[in-house]
């Protein structure tokens, strides 16, 4: 493959990569006095909460799942959250986002591949003429000189 198209293609992929696998996960941080807990706002995590006082119906989750990061949810997910806290302490829910680890790995792997391709392209275009020259000088030429006419 010629170097320039490959280079352009690689650059294009480099620019596009973060957009391809962008998928954020929402988390709900519930704080009560000194205690806090972080709940992953995904269906599978919400159905496997270790301390939940009652099952959470993930079919009713709001399209913007941060809407479900509420005192109610915190109270169900972690019933003992306010145990030992001062009487006037209340649950404070806070929604935040993070890229999923899996996506980050995919993007990183993808970038490595692209960078590898770029490096290979650049190296090849620089190394190949040198190798060819050496080959011509020490390999091919000697054979040509030694061979009888
Ligand atoms: C999520 O939020 C929506 C809208 O506020 C509500 O109707 C639904 O019951 C909530 N679901 C859960 C599991 O909290
Ligand atoms: C909250 O903290 C109290 C002690 O301050 C503790 O007894 C309780 O188990 C904690 N709850 C959680 C959910 O960590």
TrEMBL record:
Transmembrane segments: 105-123
Key words of the record: Membrane, Signal, Transmembrane, Transmembrane helix
Residues in the signal sequence: 1-21
Name of protein: Uncharacterized protein
